[in-house]
Amino acid sequence: MKTGIAAIVLAFWLPIAATAATITVSGHGQSYDPGIAMADARADAASKCAAQGGTPVKEVYSHVTRANLWLADSIWSCEVP
Q1: pLDDT at 9
Q2: DSSP β-ladder status, 21-31 and 55-66
């Protein structure tokens, strides 16, 4: 009887465990051009997501600021298996 209950619980738990998890990754870029800095930041975040075997889903936050160079940050949600 206990093995039957355990099998039922396991059958319900496995599909939940097999779903993808959503994580957050961030990227950083800098350049004398603000567009290039943001493109580099997005590419950095996408590469961090891909390094974990994930797929970038959407950009959550981005920011460009001016210092001696343009500094850009991009935060993405990433779906990993």
Answers
A1: 47
A2: unpaired
Sequential DSSP letters for 24-37: EEEEEEEESSHHHH
Instruction: State which H helix or E strand residue 61 sits in.
Output: strand 55-66
Max Cα distance, the chain (Å) = 71
What is each CA distance from 34 to 3, 43, 65, in whole angstroms? 61, 14, 8
- Kindly report whether the global pTM for this prediction surpasses the value 0.85: no
* Residue listed under structure tokens 């493109």: 39
- Write the CA distances from 2 to 5, 9, 10, 12, 45, integer angstroms: 5, 11, 12, 16, 47
Residue 80's identity, in one-letter code, is V
